[in-house]
Amino acid sequence: MPATDGSLTEREKAKVRNWFANRAAKAACESCGGRKWTLSGHVVHVPVWTTEYRTEVSSYPAVVVVCQGCAHMRFYSALGVGLCQEDIQEPARRRSGDEDTATLALSGR
């Protein structure tokens, strides 16, 4: 599990690198065609878009790899990579007619 500030340990970085090498490393960069990537050192949150002001925002945890040729960034699910576990929280508030939804969060406990 990443640290509370999102930083990855060397073991977690190795896990991501291994996952990436086995599943995604052969794909060329969409911007420049490069094939050399650098792993960022943190799990980041990709926020869920909303038109409402909220103090707490739902998000997807992700790891980022950066193309060494052009600095294009790719985001991969930290859940899919195996760094975080799914923690289903209370369903998000819904407007009438919306389908049931649940938020995902990092299990930092």
Helix tally equals 2
Mean pLDDT, to the nearest integer, reads 79
Largest sheet: 3 strands, antiparallel
Radius of gyration: 16 Å
What count of structural domains? 1
Shape: globular
Structural class: alpha+beta
- Helix percent reads 10-25%
End-to-end span in angstroms?
A: 9 Å
Listing every helix as H and every strand as E from the N terminus to the C terminus, the arrangement reads: HEEEHEE
Low-confidence stretches: 88-109
How are strands sequenced across the largest beta sheet? Answer: 1-2-3
Per DSSP E runs of 2 or more residues, the count of β-strands stands at 5
Give the percentage of residues in beta strands: 25-35%
Describe, in short, the structure shown.
The protein is an alpha+beta fold.
Description:
- The protein is of the alpha+beta class and 109 residues long.
- It has one domain.
- It contains two helices and five strands; from the N terminus they run αβββαββ.
- The strands form two sheets. It has a three-stranded antiparallel beta sheet with strand order 1-2-3. Strands 4-5 form a two-stranded antiparallel sheet.
- It is globular and about 40 Å long.
